[in-house]
Amino acid sequence: MAIRGPSRTAINTAVWRAVHTLLDDDPKLLADPFAGRLAGHASDEEVLQASAAHPLAHVPWLRTQFALRNRFAEEELANAVGQNIRQYVILGAGLDSFAYRQPSLMKVLDVYEVDHPGSQEWKRARVAKLGLDVPSHLYYAPVDFEQQTLTEGLIAAGVDRSQRAFFSWLGVTQYLSAEAVSRTLQEIAELFAKGSILVVEFIAPAATLHPQEAELVVALAASAARVGEPWLSYFTAEDMEGLLRAAGFSSVVKFGPEQAFDRYLRGRTDGSRLPGYFRMIKATT
Q1: What are phi and psi of 254, to 5 degrees?
Q2: What does the pLDDT look like over 240-255, one tens digit per residue?
Q3: How far is it, in rounded angstroms, from Cα 233 to Cα 18?
Q4: Model's pTM, two decimal places?
Q5: For 38-109, where are the E strands, in sequence order?
Q6: pLDDT at residue 3 above 50?
Q7: Please, are residues 180 and 212 in contact by the beta-carbon 8 Å criterion?
Q8: pLDDT, tens digit, 9 for 90 and up, residues 66-101
Q9: Could you tell me the maximum CA-CA distance found in the chain, to the nearest angstrom?
């Protein structure tokens, strides 16, 4: 994926998080008042116009996915903080606003945002333009996963390899080769002390889904390809578990649409649901 500026898919993701905050019922899965501004929009009206212009604007549960995956990762992170983990690595951070939404967790964490250099530079410029105060324990690690190692980027950013860390890897694996995904998982397992935790999201292969859900995967992949960010890899939960265990993770907990519905969506009044391709796993080294 060649990026010489902001990732279009990262901008779209931030827009969908903002739309969830604006349109979906309370309680929010994720209240993100920064997402729209980080995406480059000056008002809520601009955010809604941008979302309406998306070719898949008629699929409202996309915004459920983008809000819910962060909610799950951040809840698991809070649990990890309770286990004395004090380093948080956001892989493919995009326009993630954790550092500005979660001041209480920022007080006890060293947070490392890892992303493609072009996307990260654009985000940092947006933060500066918005006048946001960058927390003192927020560090940037520019990494091109296809060209350099995660280890190199994180060491340069100052991580403490002797301590455990929590990783979130959301909305990224589909843009990487299977080899790059496998290599990164091995690096995560080897880089930090045992007991480190990863929450990873990935896309199920279209061939494993019902026809309507498969059509959505194909449409989303085509939309990403049109802006120069093609999807390269898909995984079943069993595929990803195999990669994780081969990399050195000892505990694997699957989190798919059914588990997400039970934990977050049952009883909601806005009809929020997840697309069938949604898959996440929490794994521990």
Answers
A1: -85, 145
A2: 999 999 999 999 999 9
A3: 27
A4: 0.94
A5: 87-91
A6: no
A7: no
A8: 999 999 999 999 999 999 999 999 999 999 999 999
A9: 48
pLDDT tens readout for residues 9-56: 889 999 999 999 999 999 999 999 999 999 999 999 999 999 998 877
As a whole number of angstroms, the distance between CA 65 and CA 176 comes to 20
Q: 35, exposed or middle or buried, with CB in 10 Å at 0-12, 13-18, 19+?
A: buried
The Cα–Cα gap between 209 and 207 comes to 6
Laid out side by side, the sheet with 138-142 consists of: 138-142, 110-115, 87-91, 166-169, 197-203, 278-284, 251-255
d(CA 285, CA 276): 28
Asked whether the predicted pLDDT for residue 6 surpasses 90, the reply is no
**Left (φ > 0), alpha (ψ -120 to 50) or beta: where does 14 sit?**
alpha
- Could you give the angle at the alpha carbon of 160 between the alpha carbons of 154 and 164, nearest 5°? 100
DSSP assignment of 157-205, as one string?
Answer: HT--TTS--EEEE-S-GGGS-HHHHHHHHHHHHHHS-TT-EEEEEEE--
Q: pLDDT grade, residue 186 (50/70/90)?
A: very high
Packing angle between helix 8-23 and helix 44-52, nearest 10 degrees?
A: 120
What Rg do the C-alpha atoms of the chain give, in angstroms? 18
* CATH topology assigned to domain 8-284: Rossmann fold (3.40.50)
Give the contacts of 2 (CB within 8 A, at least 6 positions apart): 228
In the chain, domain spans? 8-284
